Amino acid sequence: MDRLPESMYALVVVEFAEPLGEREFSAFAQRHGRVPPEIAIYRAGGTPISWRLDTRLPDAPQGDVPKLAAAELSRNGLAGFRRWVGGLRDHDAVSLEKFGLRLELLRESAADGLAYAYVTQHACVADLRALIDDPQIRTIRPADVAYDLTGLN
User: Fold this and answer.
1) What is the dihedral of CA 144, 145, 149, 150, to 10 degrees?
2) Cα 22 to Cα 4, 40, 74, 118, 142, distances in angstroms
3) d(Cα 146, Cα 107) in Å, to the nearest integer?
4) Is 153's pLDDT higher than 60?
5) How many CB atoms lie within 10 A of CB 117?
6) Biggest alpha carbon distance in the chain?
7) Which residues contact 33 (CB under 8 A, 6 or more apart)?
8) Most buried residue, 35, 61, 108, 126, by CB count within 10 Å?
9) How far apart are CA 20 and CA 132, in angstroms?
10) 137 and 16 Cβ atoms separated by less than 8 Å
11) Is residue 123 scored above 60 in pLDDT?
12) Rg (Cα) of the chain, in Å, rounded?
């Protein structure tokens, strides 16, 4: 990351030094609003479970989805993940196993509510460099980088 120009943008996985509970994840997201979480990574045993924090559940009211602040997104995402897992029934176990998931571990993960990492898709390299100094961060792994060409006219 040191060699990348500050003006570049990156898709990254931000891994926490220790998993964060709902309250800690929300506070973290509020402090680091310039590098907001978009996808939380929970765990079911050793299997990472990714959950888009703005996922709309099938029983949600129709219409425009309100834009949530980063701290609200982390709370909304965990609540949505828990609702989805809570709707799973024992007969879903066979289908989940086809994806390498075990129902009982999903239930444990939802109950624990611990975020191990998150993904952000459009973070400025300069902001990521500042984020790496936070003691709650273990690693920041870039998956893709690009220049933001939207400002060019």
Assistant:
1) 60
2) 32, 11, 7, 13, 25
3) 38
4) no
5) 24
6) 55
7) 69, 70
8) 35
9) 16
10) yes
11) yes
12) 17
What is the tens place of the pLDDT at every residue in 38-71? 999 998 667 888 888 877 655 555 555 555 555 5
- Reported as a single tens digit per residue, the pLDDT across 125-147 is 999 999 999 999 999 999 999 88
DSSP category for residue 129? H
Structural tokens at position 135: 């003691």
> Residue 142 carries which side chain, given as an amino acid letter?
P
Token pair for residue 43?
Answer: 């765990």
What whole-number distance in Å separates Cα of residue 45 and Cα of residue 93? 15
- Structure-block tokens of residue 62: 């129709």
With 90 as the cut, is the pLDDT of residue 76 above it? no
For the segment 80-105, what is each residue's pLDDT rounded down to a tens digit?
A: 888 889 999 999 999 999 988 899 99
Joined tokens for residue 114 = 């611990």
Give the tokens for residue 44: 């079911």
Q: How many residues does the chain have?
A: 153
Among 36, 39, 37, CA closest to 48? 39
